[in-house]
Automatic annotation (TrEMBL):
It comes from the Eukaryota. The keyword Cell membrane applies. It holds the Pfam family ATP-synt_DE_N. Keywords: ATP synthesis, Cell membrane, CF(1), Coiled coil, Ion transport, Membrane, Transport. Residues 88-132 form the ATP synthase epsilon subunit C-terminal domain. PANTHER family: ATP SYNTHASE DELTA/EPSILON CHAIN, ATP SYNTHASE EPSILON CHAIN, CHLOROPLASTIC. Residues 4-83 form the ATP synthase F1 complex delta/epsilon subunit N-terminal domain. This is ATP synthase epsilon chain. It is found in: Cell membrane.
Amino acid sequence: MATIQVEIVSAEEAIWTGTGVMVFAPAEMGEVGIAPQHAPLLTRLKPGEVRVQQENGDEQFFFISGGLLEVQPNQVTVLSDTAVRAADLDEAQALEAQQKAERDLQDKTSKMDLAKAKAELIQATAQLRALQKLRQTRR
C-alpha cells in the first residue's frame, strides 16, 4: 500500500512525524483528504482536527488552531500556531473556554474584542469536537 510522509508542526515544535495512507484536514473551504501522489496544494486551515490514517489501520488525531497545509506528491506538512495531540486536550479547560467566550459575546458592555471572542469560541468548540470524535473511535 502506498504511503505519504506526514509532519504536524506547531510554532514551538514538531508534534508528530510519520507515514500515513490518508490525511484529513479542516481546510477553510471544507475538509480535504490527501492520499499518496496527491497533486501539490497549499491551502489555509481553520481550527479543527487533523486525522492521519496509518497503514496498520491505526489513526492519529491532532487539534490545530488553524494554519497552512502544504501537499507535495509524497509529503504533507501541517503548519499551525498551536497543534496538540487530541488525546492531550483538556476537556474541562475547553468547556470553560467555550463558556467564557459565549459570555463575552453576550456581554455587550464588555471591552472584550468581539472578533477575539468569536475566535476563542470557534477554537474551543473545535477542541470539544476533536475530543468527541476521539472518544467515538475508542469505543
